[in-house]
Model the fold of this input.
Amino acid sequence: MDKIKIGIKTWSNNTKVIEQLKTAYSKGIISYVEIYVVPGTSANISLFKAMNIPIVIHSTHSKHNVNIAKKELLEYNTKMFKEVVLFTEKLNSETIILHADYDGTNTAAIACLKNFESMVKNSGMITVENMPKIALDGTECLGQNAEMMKAILQDKYSFCLDFSHAYKAAFALGKEPKKLINELLELEPKLFHLSGAGSYTLKDDHLNLFDKRNEMDNSFVKKAIKKSKSKMVTIETPVRNLESIEEDLRNIEFLEEL
Done:
Protein backbone atom coordinates (compact mmCIF):
# COMPACT_ATOMS: atom_id res chain seq x y z
CA MET A 1 0.00 0.00 0.00
CA ASP A 2 2.58 2.53 -1.18
CA LYS A 3 4.83 2.13 1.86
CA ILE A 4 2.10 2.49 4.48
CA LYS A 5 2.89 0.07 7.32
CA ILE A 6 -0.29 -1.58 8.55
CA GLY A 7 -0.69 -3.13 11.97
CA ILE A 8 -3.52 -5.18 13.47
CA LYS A 9 -4.42 -4.76 17.13
CA THR A 10 -5.03 -7.67 19.43
CA TRP A 11 -5.12 -8.29 23.18
CA SER A 12 -2.56 -10.17 25.24
CA ASN A 13 -5.23 -12.65 26.37
CA ASN A 14 -6.18 -13.49 22.78
CA THR A 15 -3.75 -16.10 21.49
CA LYS A 16 -6.31 -17.68 19.16
CA VAL A 17 -5.42 -15.33 16.30
CA ILE A 18 -1.64 -15.84 16.41
CA GLU A 19 -1.50 -18.20 13.42
CA GLN A 20 -3.72 -15.84 11.38
CA LEU A 21 -1.46 -12.92 12.26
CA LYS A 22 1.59 -14.91 11.17
CA THR A 23 -0.09 -15.65 7.84
CA ALA A 24 -1.03 -12.00 7.29
CA TYR A 25 2.56 -10.97 8.07
CA SER A 26 4.09 -13.60 5.77
CA LYS A 27 1.84 -12.39 2.94
CA GLY A 28 2.95 -8.79 3.48
CA ILE A 29 -0.56 -7.66 4.47
CA ILE A 30 0.62 -6.35 7.84
CA SER A 31 3.99 -5.00 9.03
CA TYR A 32 3.47 -5.32 12.77
CA VAL A 33 1.05 -6.31 15.54
CA GLU A 34 -0.13 -3.99 18.31
CA ILE A 35 -0.81 -5.77 21.60
CA TYR A 36 -2.98 -4.32 24.36
CA VAL A 37 -1.70 -5.58 27.70
CA VAL A 38 -4.42 -7.24 29.75
CA PRO A 39 -3.28 -7.52 33.39
CA GLY A 40 -2.15 -10.96 34.47
CA THR A 41 -1.35 -12.34 31.01
CA SER A 42 2.46 -12.29 30.99
CA ALA A 43 2.43 -16.09 30.60
CA ASN A 44 1.43 -15.48 26.96
CA ILE A 45 4.53 -13.42 26.13
CA SER A 46 6.44 -16.42 24.79
CA LEU A 47 3.58 -17.24 22.39
CA PHE A 48 3.61 -13.72 20.92
CA LYS A 49 7.40 -13.70 20.79
CA ALA A 50 7.35 -16.88 18.70
CA MET A 51 5.36 -15.04 15.99
CA ASN A 52 8.59 -13.26 14.98
CA ILE A 53 6.59 -10.15 14.02
CA PRO A 54 7.52 -6.57 15.05
CA ILE A 55 5.45 -5.54 18.07
CA VAL A 56 3.93 -2.27 19.31
CA ILE A 57 2.62 -2.30 22.88
CA HIS A 58 -0.56 -0.57 24.01
CA SER A 59 -0.52 0.09 27.73
CA THR A 60 -3.33 -1.01 30.01
CA HIS A 61 -6.02 1.71 30.15
CA SER A 62 -9.40 2.58 31.68
CA LYS A 63 -10.90 -0.80 30.77
CA HIS A 64 -8.71 -2.10 33.59
CA ASN A 65 -9.06 1.00 35.79
CA VAL A 66 -5.82 2.72 34.76
CA ASN A 67 -6.10 6.51 34.36
CA ILE A 68 -2.89 8.55 34.26
CA ALA A 69 -4.86 11.79 34.75
CA LYS A 70 -5.99 10.83 38.27
CA LYS A 71 -3.54 11.78 41.01
CA GLU A 72 -4.98 9.24 43.43
CA LEU A 73 -4.27 6.40 41.00
CA LEU A 74 -0.53 7.09 40.64
CA GLU A 75 0.52 4.05 42.70
CA TYR A 76 -1.96 1.72 40.97
CA ASN A 77 -1.06 3.05 37.52
CA THR A 78 2.62 2.44 38.20
CA LYS A 79 1.95 -1.08 39.44
CA MET A 80 -0.02 -1.91 36.28
CA PHE A 81 2.70 -0.38 34.09
CA LYS A 82 5.28 -2.87 35.38
CA GLU A 83 3.64 -5.67 33.41
CA VAL A 84 3.44 -3.40 30.37
CA VAL A 85 7.20 -2.86 30.62
CA LEU A 86 7.73 -6.62 30.90
CA PHE A 87 5.83 -7.16 27.62
CA THR A 88 7.80 -4.34 26.03
CA GLU A 89 11.18 -5.73 27.04
CA LYS A 90 10.47 -9.38 26.24
CA LEU A 91 8.92 -8.56 22.85
CA ASN A 92 11.63 -6.03 21.92
CA SER A 93 9.13 -3.24 21.34
CA GLU A 94 10.25 0.36 21.00
CA THR A 95 6.77 1.83 21.45
CA ILE A 96 4.31 1.94 24.33
CA ILE A 97 1.02 3.71 23.58
CA LEU A 98 -0.87 5.35 26.44
CA HIS A 99 -4.12 7.30 26.59
CA ALA A 100 -3.95 10.94 27.68
CA ASP A 101 -6.99 9.93 29.76
CA TYR A 102 -9.92 11.77 31.32
CA ASP A 103 -11.60 13.33 34.36
CA GLY A 104 -8.29 14.53 35.77
CA THR A 105 -5.46 17.00 35.29
CA ASN A 106 -2.39 17.52 33.13
CA THR A 107 -0.35 17.83 36.32
CA ALA A 108 -1.34 14.31 37.40
CA ALA A 109 -0.80 12.90 33.90
CA ILE A 110 2.66 14.43 33.62
CA ALA A 111 3.64 13.14 37.06
CA CYS A 112 2.50 9.65 36.09
CA LEU A 113 4.37 9.77 32.79
CA LYS A 114 7.51 10.82 34.65
CA ASN A 115 7.13 7.70 36.80
CA PHE A 116 6.69 5.57 33.70
CA GLU A 117 9.66 7.22 32.01
CA SER A 118 11.97 6.01 34.78
CA MET A 119 10.95 2.43 33.98
CA VAL A 120 11.84 2.37 30.25
CA LYS A 121 14.95 2.83 28.11
CA ASN A 122 14.09 6.27 26.79
CA SER A 123 11.26 8.80 26.93
CA GLY A 124 10.57 8.48 23.20
CA MET A 125 9.19 4.99 23.76
CA ILE A 126 6.28 6.53 25.65
CA THR A 127 3.73 7.44 23.00
CA VAL A 128 0.67 9.39 24.15
CA GLU A 129 -2.61 9.16 22.22
CA ASN A 130 -4.99 12.07 21.65
CA MET A 131 -8.51 11.67 22.99
CA PRO A 132 -12.11 12.65 22.11
CA LYS A 133 -13.58 15.51 24.14
CA ILE A 134 -16.07 13.30 25.95
CA ALA A 135 -15.11 10.03 27.65
CA LEU A 136 -17.35 6.98 27.72
CA ASP A 137 -18.48 7.92 31.23
CA GLY A 138 -19.42 11.45 30.11
CA THR A 139 -16.47 13.23 31.72
CA GLU A 140 -14.01 15.41 29.81
CA CYS A 141 -10.80 14.06 28.32
CA LEU A 142 -7.30 15.46 28.30
CA GLY A 143 -5.42 15.64 24.99
CA GLN A 144 -8.48 16.55 22.91
CA ASN A 145 -6.61 19.08 20.73
CA ALA A 146 -3.07 19.94 19.62
CA GLU A 147 -2.46 22.52 22.36
CA MET A 148 -3.44 20.08 25.11
CA MET A 149 -1.39 17.29 23.56
CA LYS A 150 1.69 19.47 23.26
CA ALA A 151 1.48 20.31 26.98
CA ILE A 152 1.44 16.59 27.84
CA LEU A 153 4.15 15.56 25.37
CA GLN A 154 6.57 18.24 26.65
CA ASP A 155 8.74 17.81 23.55
CA LYS A 156 10.06 14.50 24.89
CA TYR A 157 7.32 11.89 24.56
CA SER A 158 6.10 10.55 21.21
CA PHE A 159 2.62 11.04 19.79
CA CYS A 160 -0.02 8.62 18.47
CA LEU A 161 -2.67 10.34 16.36
CA ASP A 162 -5.99 8.56 16.68
CA PHE A 163 -8.13 9.75 13.76
CA SER A 164 -11.43 8.60 15.26
CA HIS A 165 -10.69 10.41 18.53
CA ALA A 166 -9.81 13.55 16.57
CA TYR A 167 -13.08 13.43 14.63
CA LYS A 168 -15.06 12.90 17.84
CA ALA A 169 -13.27 15.81 19.50
CA ALA A 170 -13.94 18.02 16.49
CA PHE A 171 -17.65 17.13 16.47
CA ALA A 172 -17.90 18.00 20.18
CA LEU A 173 -15.85 21.19 19.86
CA GLY A 174 -17.75 22.41 16.80
CA LYS A 175 -14.51 22.41 14.83
CA GLU A 176 -13.86 21.26 11.28
CA PRO A 177 -12.27 17.79 11.70
CA LYS A 178 -9.62 18.21 9.00
CA LYS A 179 -8.44 21.44 10.61
CA LEU A 180 -8.01 19.70 13.96
CA ILE A 181 -6.21 16.78 12.34
CA ASN A 182 -3.86 19.09 10.44
CA GLU A 183 -2.99 20.79 13.74
CA LEU A 184 -2.31 17.41 15.35
CA LEU A 185 -0.17 16.36 12.38
CA GLU A 186 2.20 19.20 13.23
CA LEU A 187 3.14 17.21 16.35
CA GLU A 188 4.77 14.64 14.02
CA PRO A 189 2.99 11.41 15.02
CA LYS A 190 5.09 8.31 15.58
CA LEU A 191 2.14 6.22 14.45
CA PHE A 192 -1.62 6.37 13.87
CA HIS A 193 -4.76 4.60 15.03
CA LEU A 194 -7.47 4.27 12.41
CA SER A 195 -11.17 3.51 12.70
CA GLY A 196 -14.36 5.21 11.56
CA ALA A 197 -16.25 7.93 13.45
CA GLY A 198 -19.74 9.39 13.23
CA SER A 199 -21.41 12.39 14.84
CA TYR A 200 -24.46 10.34 15.92
CA THR A 201 -22.69 10.13 19.30
CA LEU A 202 -19.91 12.32 20.67
CA LYS A 203 -18.52 9.47 22.74
CA ASP A 204 -15.81 7.16 21.44
CA ASP A 205 -17.03 4.38 19.16
CA HIS A 206 -14.46 3.01 16.63
CA LEU A 207 -16.53 2.09 13.60
CA ASN A 208 -15.49 -0.03 10.66
CA LEU A 209 -14.17 2.14 7.83
CA PHE A 210 -16.94 0.84 5.58
CA ASP A 211 -19.72 1.50 8.14
CA LYS A 212 -22.40 3.78 6.68
CA ARG A 213 -22.31 5.85 9.89
CA ASN A 214 -18.65 6.69 9.31
CA GLU A 215 -18.35 10.40 8.45
CA MET A 216 -14.57 10.38 8.22
CA ASP A 217 -12.95 11.43 4.96
CA ASN A 218 -11.02 8.19 4.49
CA SER A 219 -9.09 9.47 1.45
CA PHE A 220 -7.91 12.54 3.40
CA VAL A 221 -6.79 10.29 6.24
CA LYS A 222 -4.92 7.95 3.90
CA LYS A 223 -3.07 10.89 2.32
CA ALA A 224 -2.13 12.18 5.78
CA ILE A 225 -0.63 8.81 6.68
CA LYS A 226 1.31 8.58 3.42
CA LYS A 227 2.80 12.05 3.98
CA SER A 228 4.00 11.20 7.50
CA LYS A 229 7.53 10.08 8.34
CA SER A 230 6.65 6.77 10.01
CA LYS A 231 3.60 5.75 7.93
CA MET A 232 2.64 3.26 10.66
CA VAL A 233 -1.09 2.81 11.18
CA THR A 234 -2.89 0.34 13.43
CA ILE A 235 -6.33 -0.72 12.30
CA GLU A 236 -8.40 -0.19 15.45
CA THR A 237 -11.85 -0.99 14.14
CA PRO A 238 -14.20 -3.15 16.25
CA VAL A 239 -13.46 -6.83 16.60
CA ARG A 240 -16.70 -8.81 16.59
CA ASN A 241 -15.07 -12.24 16.60
CA LEU A 242 -12.04 -12.67 18.84
CA GLU A 243 -11.12 -15.88 17.05
CA SER A 244 -10.70 -14.24 13.65
CA ILE A 245 -8.95 -11.27 12.00
CA GLU A 246 -11.25 -11.37 8.98
CA GLU A 247 -12.90 -8.06 9.88
CA ASP A 248 -9.49 -6.42 10.26
CA LEU A 249 -8.50 -7.72 6.83
CA ARG A 250 -11.71 -6.34 5.34
CA ASN A 251 -10.88 -2.89 6.73
CA ILE A 252 -7.33 -3.13 5.37
CA GLU A 253 -8.68 -4.07 1.94
CA PHE A 254 -11.09 -1.10 2.10
CA LEU A 255 -8.20 1.26 2.88
CA GLU A 256 -6.07 -0.19 0.09
CA GLU A 257 -8.81 0.39 -2.47
CA LEU A 258 -9.24 4.10 -1.70
About this structure: The chain has one domain: 5-256. Residues 5-256 form a domain with the TIM Barrel fold (CATH 3.20.20.150). The beta strands are 5-11, 32-36, 55-58, 96-99, 126-129, 158-162, 191-194, 232-235.
